[in-house]
Amino acid sequence: DTTTTADMGRGALVILALLGASSALSPSTYLTPGDKERLKLVLDPAWSLSDLAQVLYASAGYKHLGQEIPNIEGVCNFVKSSATDGATVETLFLASSAGKALGCPIAASSASVQAVSDAIREGASSQELFHAVTAAANLGVDLDTAKVLRATQMALKKDDSVLSLGYAFHVGAQLKGEVGSIFERIEDAIVQADEVDGRILQFEGGLSITALVLSGAYKLAETTNKVPPIKPDQAVKFANYLMSRKSVQLSKGVYYLLEAVSMFTNNKFHVPVAITLASNVAVSAEAPNIQVRVTDLEGYSLGPLKVTADSATRVSDEVVIISKEPLVPLSAADGVYELDVMSRGPHRGFYRLVVSVDASDSRLVGHTDAQLTFKVLTAIDIQGVEIGTADSDQSTAPNLQKVTYPNTLPEVLVADQHQRVMLRFLVRDTASGRPTEVHQAFVKITHIESKREIIFVAETDSNDIYKFDIDVSSSMKEFGGVSGVYSIELIIGDASISNPTLWHIADLSLTFPESTIPSSPQDYTYKVRPEIHHVFRSPDPRPSTVMSTTFTVLCILPLFLLLLIWVKLGVNISNFPLTLSAVLFHIGLAGILALFCLFWLQLDMFSTLRYLLMVGIVTFFCGNSMLSNIATKRKENA
Amino acid sequence: EHCQQPVVVMLRLVLLMVCVTSALGAHTLVLVDTLATRETHSIFLKSLQERGHEVSVKAADDPSLQLSRYGEYIYQNLVILAPGVEEFGGALSVETIVEFVDGGGSVLVAGSRDAADLIRELVTEVGVEMDEEGAAVIDHLHYDANDDGQHTLIASPSAGLIESEVMVGPRDAVPLLYRGTGLITDADNPLVLPVLRAPSTAYCYNPTQAITDYPHATGQNMLLVAALQARNNARVIVSGSLEFFSDAFIMASVQTPQGAFYERSGNGKVVEALSRWVFMEEGVLRVASVKHHLQGESEPPSAYTIKQDVEYKIKIERLEDGVWKPFLANDLQLEFVRIDPFVRLTMTPHPNGVFSVNFKVPDVYGVYQFKVEYNRVGFTRLFSTTQVSVRPFTHRQYERFIECAYPYYASAFSMMVGVFLFSLVFLHHKDSPPKHKSE
Lengths: 638, 439
Fold this sequence. Notes:
The complex is a heterodimer of chains A (638) and B (439).
Chain A: H1 2-22, H2 33-43, H3 52-65, H4 72-82, H5 89-102, H6 110-119, H7 126-139, H8 145-158, H9 162-173, H10 180-183, H11 186-190, E1 194-196, E2 200-202, H12 207-224, H13 232-244, H14 251-265, E3 271-272, E4 274-277, E5 282-283, E6 289-295, E7 306-314, E8 320-326, E9 328-329, E10 336-340, E11 349-358, E12 364-365, E13 370-376, E14 380-391, E15 399-403, E16 413-416, E17 419-429, E18 440-447, E19 453-457, E20 459-460, E21 465-471, H15 476-479, E22 484-493, E23 501-511, H16 545-569, H17 580-601, H18 605-637
Helix pairs in contact in A: 3-5, 3-14, 4-5, 5-7, 6-7, 7-9, 8-9, 9-12, 12-14, 17-18
Chain B: H1 4-24, E1 27-32, H2 37-40, H3 42-50, E2 54-59, E3 68-69, E4 72-73, E5 77-81, H4 94-102, E6 106-110, H5 117-125, E7 128-130, E8 136-138, E9 154-156, H6 165-168, E10 176-178, E11 183-185, E12 192-197, E13 203-205, E14 223-229, E15 235-239, H7 247-251, E16 254-255, E17 261-262, H8 267-278, E18 285-294, E19 304-305, E20 309-320, E21 323-326, E22 333-338, E23 340-346, E24 348-349, E25 354-360, E26 366-374, E27 382-391, H9 406-428, H10 435-438
Parallel strand pairs in B: 1-2, 1-5, 5-6, 6-15, 19-27
Antiparallel strand pairs in B: 3-4, 7-11, 8-13, 9-10, 12-14, 14-15, 16-17, 18-20, 20-21, 20-25, 22-23, 22-26, 24-25, 26-27
Helix pairs in contact in B: 4-5
Transmembrane segments (chain B): 7-32, 406-427
Keywords (chain B): Endoplasmic reticulum, Membrane, Transmembrane, Transmembrane helix
Organism (chain B): Cherax quadricarinatus (Australian red claw crayfish)
């Protein structure tokens, strides 16, 4: 728990610090031309004339923005055609208000006058009353102030929310006579505003409620001619809130924002002053003046004013370079005042400028202690640049060569793992002529082939000389052990120098020992892999046809030899017994041999066995019978 | 009845259209620090709505937040534009968001210089580290003219964008505006993609403090926008800048210190493209069908035999504007794998999205897979395997009547003929009368 409170404490500190840095209580922005253009774009879709409320928001918004409404006749006709007999009070309110904003007031028919008068009754909500009263005022209908007041009081009794109060203020602002009873309620509303960060006041419910209450309160105060119970700093905080909502994207929000902003630029009590920088945030010898714009929230000049720079303080060391200096009005631009800063000989850096406006007009609020930040730029140059290599064991003196900006060392430096690469330089402020430190003094070493870059930070020694020194062998990891040509570039940068520099100083050929290169397997993630074609096993080598034919002939030759010799010997088969068994035996034997051939050519094992069985049995019995016949015959002959 | 039919057809058409649009209508939850973010980032949010997202914008500490109900996700996409949130409201936490990503959900997170620990913890879960609190990306050579003086409004050259049209749209030369913290990723993590690299001269440090330690992120090793496509194809985008997505930056002009001027920053196009990518509207592939068979046939056999010629076809489709259309690429590869790939070939694309390849089955039998794995930057990972068995030749499929075996054939036949003749002669030979001998 202690840690969390500590964290929260730190968080609060950070927030406080940020607030301190951002600005004191004074609107730090106004509706710039860009903002106005964007707000206009938000309103533009209304000109398709499909929604009366949008048309009202756009017409009123355009009026505030000083824009010309396109096709104004068509818009007027659309508004007039909306306010027909039988239209609701809300429609009448929208149509009559839009008509007023467009400059084509719509005529009141007796039916609409009747409808409006009827709507002002006890029991109506303050919003309904606001619609009815506004419609009545726009249509030129006379109202009974006492009756409206009674109804308003009733409505507030029923619902005293901020929104309801806001509508009541607008009702009161349009009444003639004594409306003090509503005016007294302004304070009730204002105390309900929430404060954010100590610089913003807003009502829960956002822009439309805040803007509605504010414009209502000030209008009511103007009607009653009494100062509203809103303190000047509260007015400034409300103004800050409105400015923080410049980005609103709904046409309704734009309408309310512009209503409230224009009220804040033109009322009898409080006009918040926006003090902003008109010039670039940077001041340098070429542009020595700081320009301050003093305007109202809409960006319009507040007339000739006496603008004073209370102080200008360097942020880093609180050195004050200016105190109580008047700013000179710029003749070319209204509401812009300037001050020559560079004539004070400021050091480069960030400065806090506190500006106050002497207000002859008592309505102005938020015009003192406006904090602005500017920076003083000076040019730097890089001097005494020496680059080279040295042996790691410091056995020999380093071999350093001088280079001047913006040249590149003509020869390529060569270093291996036994050496160091060294770079020395001095950054000099050309304004003061003294060495200076910059925020960014980096040495970027890029492998030219792979574009892989390694960045080192150069550090200063006691003499403000920047040094960069790497031992090649110990920084092998950073380089990934990749040998090759690297380019050495120096980056000098700072927010307060006018010439940040990227300088290619030299090329460096690094050699790392081959064995140290880690052989990582090739990574094919997201890449096309190499194709693989299967290598089929090649068939065994075979003897040539001549060889096989020769041996085939040789194999068949004995058979022919046998036949030849038999013929010579006069072999015969005259003893062949002409019996069935003998004939069948020999046919069977031939059949078996033929079966073997068939087996080789096409039959499978089982069918072969089946046929063999059939032929075999016959052959066996026939053979048996034939052989016994032959044996008997031989016995007989013997 | 005839009159009613067109009505029925119409009704069906309407139903169909409803189905199609609801398929597009992803539910997107946008978490913000303050509801004003809805206004400062309206262009981004509006583009989501225009693309059919059901966008609900809620405060990040809204106590009613939940991503899933009854075990089902109510949102497909989560946008966290709330760098300042200390603790999520409702049922939301870093764990539930990580589970959401595990469940295939898409997340877009934007940080800032002062991003709360919660956001840092969340992005660490997806492999991205935000630099420490207060550190801002600084570049003294690439800043915009509207910078407040510290050179933290970076005009990042578009050359730092990842080379993937699917992710960041067509490339142009317009710089991108960025103000925020730097991102550090592990270069060896292939799932984290560097969408936008910082310029070489940039670094991340507290602009108001002198550099005493080496900055955590420098140059091109520092990312401004990082993306994760997890193994389940869930996508996450992390940016160190909330303003990168803001109307102000999208509508802003850019003026570089070198004097180049651009009417509009490049943010608009890139934000649009990135959000299309992260919310699965771009770069989504699927396998529509797989076919394989012997060449000249149309149905697959029960098993392939070694050395057969086989044809493999795969149809791949790509989601374009909510419709599946044929995919074309010339780097899709088929592997024929038995533990290791035996064959890997690039397939020929056809205009109808079918990729085909012909090859000869290897002469090693076993159980193989046809495997198509397509993993390219920006696209969902495509993976398809089909298992087939490859058997050796049957005894009849070997070669017959080999020439060099003729001596064997010949000797066998001559032996058979010899046996037949010899048995005939041996059994039935009649000696000539012996008288001849006595003569």
